[in-house]
Write a structure and sequence with these properties.
This protein is α/β, with parallel strands linked by helices. It has helices at 36-48, 123-127, 130-144, 146-168, 173-213, 232-246, 267-270, 273-295, 312-324, 338-346, and strands spanning 2-11, 14-20, 25-29, 67-75, 81-89, 93-98, 101-102, 115-118, 219-224, 257-262, 265-266, 300-304, 331-335, 353-358, 361-365. 44% of the residues lie in helices and 24% in strands.
Length: 368
């Protein structure tokens, strides 16, 4: 899948832009705060109709503007052309259109235009709380499996019903059993899909980590869930007294987590900055491979500031991986250093694009 071009109006610091992209590598050069990452977020916005991180969607609208609009033209792997537009207007909500027709549900869009982003914020996948890692699982699996997203929505709906009952002090066992039965049906599907995802992802991830790190460190992932050892119904019954006191449900897939290790050590407790960055990049590349196989589409790959906290050898390994393999298609890379980008471009076949970014403006540069 290739993003041929993008049109942007009033997205963050980008007042107006239209950019035609290379089908291979696209490099964005500029100082911090100039708009490099904002362009990547606009591309992300076309795929997910939401920001990179948890923030009000209205915060994407340029200061002083009343609305934003992002349009993209895609060349699909099967040969067809798709046009996507997504807009937000203050006080009026969001519109998402494919081929000019608005979706009935935005969830219908998820997974049609897959992408994988590597960014400095990825360190929170290791150092942050379990919510970050659950969000990762949900976002990735939802791109590959529409049924998973349906189960997730059903589970969260039933979970909120149980939480309302707990806050209200409901004591009726029959009411709890009715809600918990719906939770369990969805939870079993979620747990099964997550477990299979981790099993499939783990060896690919470990291989990427070894290739980037160039040593014998063994990186691993483990899925921790209460459903690994008991049914959700059993767990909810066991915790009902505690949950009544807390006013919320303390056990279930919404509390699952990924355990991230290097050898016998926890990455969260003992990983260096370089190891954590290597770990998260290897994880993102494994996710890319997972989506490519499951969707039958080559996702876009966005590499935001990958040089930070990595030595030259590891960066070289990463770029050889993504530029020399037929598995990776269109790539977007940001950096503040022209020398870094020139080194990347010199190793690439085809016609890369180099854009200088300043205050939300994008200027093409000749490549050496």
């Amino acid at each position: 899948m290739i993003l041929r071009n993008i049109e942007i109006l009033d997205f963050k610091n980008i007042r107006e832009a239209r950019i035609d992209f290379s089908e291979g590598v696209n490099c964005l050069l500029g100082m911090n705060g100039m708009g490099k990452s904002n362009l990547l977020e606009a591309i992300h916005f076309l795929s997910f109709a939401r920001p990179f991180s948890s923030m009000p969607e209205s915060a994407l609208i340029r200061h002083g503007a009343e609305s934003l609009l992002v349009k993209g033209e895609y060349l699909m792997d099967a040969g067809g052309v798709e046009n996507i537009s997504c807009g937000i207007a203050r006080g009026k909500g969001k519109t998402l259109r494919r081929q000019g027709k608005e979706y009935e549900k935005i969830s219908q869009h998820i997974g049609r235009f897959p992408l994988v982003t590597v960014s400095p914020q990825d360190s929170s996948l290791v150092t942050g709380n379990g919510e970050e890692r659950r969000r990762l699982m949900n976002m990735v699996i939802s791109q590959a499996d529409g049924a998973y997203l349906s189960h997730l929505i059903a589970y969260n709906r039933a979970l909120e019903s149980r939480n309302r009952m707990l806050r209200a002090g409901v004591r009726d066992d029959i009411l709890y059993e009715s809600v918990e039965s719906a939770m369990e049906t969805a939870a079993n599907a979620i747990h099964s899909t997550r477990s299979e995802w981790v099993r499939e992802l783990s060896p690919v991830f470990a291989s990427f980590y070894g290739e980037i790190a160039g040593n014998d460190e063994h990186a691993s992932l483990k899925y921790n869930s209460v459903l690994n050892t008991e049914t959700l119904r059993e767990a909810l019954l066991r915790k009902r007294g505690k949950d009544t006191a807390l006013g919320y449900t303390s056990v279930g897939p919404h509390r699952d987590d990924l355990e991230m290790s290097l050898g016998h050590y926890s990455m969260r407790r003992l990983g260096s900055q370089g190891q954590i960055k290597t770990y998260t990049i290897a994880l993102r590349l494994a996710i890319f491979e997972f989506l490519r196989k499951r969707r039958g589409l080559t996702p876009l790959l966005l590499l935001d500031d990958i040089f930070d906290k990595l030595d030259a050898d590891r960066v070289a390994h990463i770029m050889r991986l993504v530029s020399a393999s037929d598995s990776f298609g269109q790539i977007f890379i940001t950096d503040t250093n022209r020398k870094h980008l020139d080194e990347i471009i010199s190793e690439i076949n085809g016609t890369p694009l180099l854009l200088s970014v300043e205050n939300g403006h994008f200027t093409p540069h000749e490549t050496h």
